[in-house]
Amino acid sequence: MARDHRAHRARDSRRPGGPRRTGRPEDLVRRTAFDVIRAVETRDAYANLLLPARLRDRNLTGRDAALATELTYGTLRGRGTYDAVLALCSDRELRRIDAPLLDVLRLGAHQILATRIPPHAAVGTTVDLARSVTGPGGSKFANAVLRKVAARPLDAWLEIIAPADTDLTTRLSIAHSHPKWIVSALRDALGPDSGEIADLLAADNARPLVTLVARPGRATLAELTSAGAAPAPYSPYGAVLPEGDPASLPAVREGRAAVQDEASQLVAAALAAVPLDGPDARWLDICAGPGGKAGLLAALAASRDAHLLAADLQPHRATLVRRTVDARTAVIAADGTAPAWRPASFDRILLDAPCTGLGALRRRPEARWRRGPSAVAELGTTQRALLRSALDAVRPGGVVAYVTCSPHLAETRVVIDDILRERKDTKRLNAPAVLTDLAPSLTGIAVGEDAQFWPHRHGTDAMFLSLLTRS
Ligand SMILES: C[S@@+](CC[C@H](N)C(=O)[O-])C[C@H]1O[C@@H](n2cnc3c(N)ncnc32)[C@H](O)[C@@H]1O
């Protein structure tokens, strides 16, 4: 994690935390980061949803908003590394420190070790924050701990907390701030000899580019590029916005384009691109909420006179889908494992299954700390039930796309292998071939006949795609 921050620092002169011109209230910036971090801890809030709301409430914009975002996301991501440093700088075990004060210390450690904020300023402002959060006792303790943190740069700390003679998984877990079980799972998914795990973990800690999708028939790539975006490397509908607020683009404001990871675009587009014999008029998105892929599928369906039915178990998520798709798309709240539709009645089905989200750690900084490995088995039951249901709902000769935003083998290939063993009427199609027809420059995605995207290889989320058909 740390190495990334330093590389980023050298490259990016716009990095938050540099000399300030606005004279806006820095303490409100830190307080906002702290409040969001606490809400993530105490009430399972999502930083990417709560932070923009807090920035709006508190009227923080421009450099202040950028700094609050960097401090919030950086602290949440780096928690594992910072805790290892703090444990050596504190005379109290971390579990004996009041939770709010520990979050203040993490916020301070992030500023000291991974931003351009001068250490004395980082210590001073964090001690002030500790005083306002916990009173004078907490501020003295924070002062003592953070002065020790500031005694060494991150490189030197890493040599102490993650020494070269530690086993690889533990060392990478501490240095790149990922729980050990996630490092193990990602190593398994990459393959034991890949040698790419450190690059992957570093990519998980980097800020993703903002990628837009131009929904076909509703917006064009030219419209996005004329507004300052550049064509995305792979997706025929994708554009990368180098800076600025996506909502400033009329196409985004009007819902004709949207922010969407490039791999998410490609897996939805791949489902639509599989050649089919026979009818091709009825499409289903079983797990559609909040509606990113449904937005693209609905537009593709409309361009071919097909109809999409979008479903989600959660009524509020079905409502979000309704806001995304056009009026000709039907949206229902329904349990995909107890279908509200007739068997064998769809030509194309997307099953974007609920999963651990280990492929989207770049966007959800807190996600890595939220679930433990037991979630994988729990989700596996639902994933299999939904896939059986999808295969029942597709007509013979139709296609089901099984998608996860996780590369964990137990959520991807193992699920598909189990279902193929169980169902003699079902077979895999060649997903990488369909994807490379759409995006000829795409390489490094094939895992047998399935496809796996990677942040460090493709600059996308780690989406998995298997395409299945039944007789
Ligand atoms: C990975 S998300 C889908 C993301 C969505 N396809 C998109 O691109 O925006 C998984 C969704 O599955 C839904 N879900 C979970 N269990 C379900 C079930 N039994 N039936 C239908 N939807 C379910 C969740 O509510 C969640 O919205």
TrEMBL record:
Domain of life: Bacteria
Composition skew (Basic residues), residue ranges: 1-22
Residue ranges annotated for the SAM-dependent MTase RsmB/NOP-type domain, each copy included: 183-471
EC number of the protein: 2.1.1.176
Signal peptide: none
Keyword Methyltransferase: yes
Keywords: Methyltransferase, RNA-binding, S-adenosyl-L-methionine, Transferase
Pfam families for this protein: Methyltr_RsmB-F, NusB
Residues forming the catalytic site: C405
GO molecular function: RNA binding; RNA methyltransferase activity
Binding annotation for S-adenosyl-L-methionine: C287, A288, G289, P290, G291, G292, K293, D312, D352
Region (Disordered): 1-26
A single BP term in Gene Ontology: RNA methylation
Keyword field contains Secreted: no
Function: May act as RNA methyltransferase.
Alphabetized PANTHER family for the sequence: NOP2 YEAST -RELATED NOL1/NOP2/FMU SUN DOMAIN-CONTAINING (PTHR22807), RIBOSOMAL RNA SMALL SUBUNIT METHYLTRANSFERASE B-RELATED (PTHR22807:SF53)
Family: Belongs to the class I-like SAM-binding methyltransferase superfamily. RsmB/NOP family.
UniProt name for this protein: Ribosomal RNA small subunit methyltransferase B
Organism: Actinomadura rubteroloni
Lineage of the organism: Bacteria, Bacillati, Actinomycetota, Actinomycetes, Streptosporangiales
